[in-house]
């Protein structure tokens, strides 16, 4: 996630309302409502479209629990990294399943089927997809 962060005069990072909304997974309107409700502690008076929320500010959940913005953002970033790694793993597993399917269907490797002298239109179609999947797997491993 690309962030352009503002560092205030005390060397603390601060975030726009839009950035906070992305990290929290809610709308900008929700963040604005929470600001009006006083659910962010340590946020100075609001200037229209200029509100910055310091990493040291505190957010009060609907249950009354208090969380430091810095900690919530660190958790959100970590969760995003895990999700991205998990998605990549799932994609790799799906590609490997397709490769196994073709090897089982034809009872041999791609190379041997590719070198077969006469091929049906179905085999040609399958070989095309099989080659594509092999290239994807190879590029993932590099």
From TrEMBL:
Domain of life, per lineage: Bacteria
InterPro entries given in the database record: DNA-bd_dom_put_sf (IPR009061)
Gene3D superfamilies, sorted: 1.10.1660.10
Protein name: Helix-turn-helix domain protein
Source organism of the structure: Clostridium magnum DSM 2767
């Amino acid at each position: 996630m690309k962030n352009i962060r503002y560092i205030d005069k005390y060397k603390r990072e601060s975030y726009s309302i839009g950035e906070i909304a992305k990290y929290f997974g809610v709308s900008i309107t929700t963040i604005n409502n929470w600001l009006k409700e006083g659910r962010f502690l340590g946020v100075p008076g609001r200037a229209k479209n200029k509100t910055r929320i310091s990493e040291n500010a505190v957010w009060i959940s609907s249950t009354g629990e208090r969380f430091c913005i810095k900690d919530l953002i660190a958790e959100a970033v970590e969760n995003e990294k895990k999700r991205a790694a998990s998605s990549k793993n799932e994609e790799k597993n799906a590609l490997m399943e397709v490769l196994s399917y073709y090897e089982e269907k034809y009872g041999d490797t791609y190379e041997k089927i590719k070198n077969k002298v006469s091929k049906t239109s179905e085999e040609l179609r399958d070989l095309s997809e099989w080659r594509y999947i092999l290239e994807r797997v190879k590029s993932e491993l590099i």
